[in-house]
Amino acid sequence: MTHIIKGATTPVPAGPLRVAVGRGAVPGTSAVDASALLLDATGRVRGDADLVFRGRLRHPSGAVRHAGVGQGGGQFAEWLELDLPDIEPAVQRVVITGSCAGGTFGQVPGLYARVVAYDGTIAAHYEVTDASAETAFVLGEFYRRDGAWRFRAVGQGYDSGLAGLATDFGCGVAAPAASGEPIVTTGVSKTAVPPPGAQPAVPGGSPTPPGAPAVPPPSPSLADARPLPPDATGRPGFPGPLEPAGSSGSSGSSGWSGSSWSPPYVRSGTGAATLTVDPPFPPGAGPVIVEARVRGTDRLTVRLTGRADEVFDGVLPGRRGRALVQPPRKGGPLRLDVRHDGDWTISVLPLSAARPFGTGTVRGQGPDVLAYPGTAADLRIRVAGRHQGRFRLSCHRGDTPDDLRRPEPLHSGSGRIATTVRISDGPLLLVVDTCHTDWELTALPLSAGAPSADRKSGVHEGRGQKTVTLVNPQPGRPALVRYEFRGAEPAYGLEVRTVGRQGGESGWLSGYAHGTRGVSLAFASGAAESTVRVRHSGEWTLRLLPEEEAPLLTGPVEGKGSTVLRYQGPPALMRLRRASPAAGGRLAAWAWNHPSGEPAIIADVGDRPALGPLWVHPGGSAFVAVAASEYTRWRLAPASFDEVPVLGGRAEGTGYGVVRHIGPGTTVSYGSNCGDPRLCQLDENLFPWREVTATSGPYVVSEGILHVRALGDWTLEAHR
Question: What global pTM score does this model have?
Answer without folding.
Answer: 0.44
